[in-house]
């Protein structure tokens, strides 16, 4: 799955995500590092990787509802895969992450 080496986001990228999410720069970098660790160095998270990640970041995850969790993860993945290429980039993933954490999904 993921690679151990992650690059740092450029200052310009960090500032764009700070404006978009209202998170602190160090938090953006931490989320990015975790994303790369799960998605791999190519920075593209497939559905299986997203399902595992989703189960870790969802606040009210129910470990006894595996089928429902998978269906929900698939639905969210498809909603945020903006270019419909079957993978999430960090740009797409950060939107999912923010909305889940803010209880908007």
Automatic annotation (TrEMBL):
InterPro entries: EF-hand-dom_pair, EF_Hand_1_Ca_BS, EF_hand_dom. The keyword Membrane does not apply. Gene3D superfamilies: EF-hand (1.10.238.10). GO terms for molecular function: calcium ion binding. Pfam families: EF-hand_1 (PF00036). The keyword Calcium applies. Residues 68-103 form the EF-hand domain. Keywords: Calcium. This is EF-hand domain-containing protein.
């Amino acid at each position: 799955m993921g690679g151990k080496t992650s690059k740092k986001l450029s200052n310009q990228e960090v500032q764009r995500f700070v404006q978009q999410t209202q998170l602190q720069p160090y938090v953006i970098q931490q989320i990015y590092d975790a994303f790369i660790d799960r998605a791999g160095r190519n920075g593209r998270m497939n559905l299986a990787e997203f399902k595992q990640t989703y189960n870790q970041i969802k606040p009210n995850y129910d470990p006894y509802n595996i089928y429902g969790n998978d269906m929900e993860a698939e639905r969210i993945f498809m909603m945020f895969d903006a270019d419909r290429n079957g993978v999430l980039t960090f740009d797409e993933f950060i939107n999912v992450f923010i909305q889940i954490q803010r209880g908007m999904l």
